Amino acid sequence: MEAILERCAGLDVHQESIVACVLVGPLDRSPKSEIRTFGTMVDDLLALADWLSETGCTHVAMESTGIYWKPVWNVLEAFDFELLLANAHHIKNLPGRKTDMKDAEWIAKLLRCGLIEGSFVPSQEIRDLRDLTRYRKKLVQEATSEKNRIHRLLQDANIKLTTHMSDI
């Protein structure tokens, strides 16, 4: 695999921890790697961002595992990194003994060689709008469900309101 990035990082993101591997070195030589583990609270994410900045990291890749990547992305996008969100199926490591450190290093190696295709992540405004519309949809579904439950309850009690009104 031919390297195209001199300074990059791979993040293995979990619910309570993030394992970060930074690869630094000339493109024609094997890179030096440094691995650290961070928590997922805001202070920990800011410490991660500071550490990545200190190492001169320009590109950061992480797996899109569940929803755990979202707070990491939200904090890191405020910094000057080129962020990539990778589909976990596209960057699967070879079978064998899996560790978080090996996963983070594998992601960093793939990124260094330009082998990660980033997933589309919309802007913060669009993500907020999506969250609001999904929440509204859920509330409308719950209201409809309650109306149907009340309608069934009234029908079981032989109260035929629907013959006289269209909306209970």
Secondary structure topology:
Elements: E1 7-13, E2 17-24, E3 32-39, H1 42-54, E4 59-63, H2 69-76, E5 82-86, H3 100-112, H4 124-156
Parallel strand pairs: 1-4, 4-5
Antiparallel strand pairs: 1-2, 2-3
Helix pairs in contact: 1-2
Describe the structure.
The chain has 168 residues and is an alpha/beta fold. It has two domains: 7-112, Ribonuclease H-like superfamily/Ribonuclease H (Nucleotidyltransferase, domain 5, 2-Layer Sandwich), CATH 3.30.420; 124-163, no CATH class. Helix content is 40%, strand content 20%. The chain is built from four helices and five strands. The chain has helices at 42-54, 69-76, 100-112, 124-156, and strands at residues 7-13, 17-24, 32-39, 59-63, 82-86. It has a five-stranded mixed beta sheet with strand order 3-2-1-4-5. A hairpin with a 7-residue loop joins strand 2 (17-24) and strand 3. Helix 1 crosses helix 2. The longest helix is centred in the last third of the chain and has 33 residues, at 124-156. The termini are far apart. The relative contact order is 0.15. The mean pLDDT is 92.
Question: How would you sum up this structure in a few lines?
Answer:
The chain is an alpha/beta fold. The protein is built from 4 helices and 5 strands.
* Rg over alpha carbons: 24 Å
- The CATH architecture of the largest domain can be named as 2-Layer Sandwich
Helical percentage = 25-40%
Quickly give the structural class.
Answer: alpha/beta
Largest sheet: 5 strands, mixed
Residue ranges: pLDDT <50 for 5 or more in a row? none
Estimate the mean pLDDT confidence.
92
Number of continuous helical runs = 4
* Alpha carbon gap, first and last residue: 66 Å
**Number of strand segments:** 5
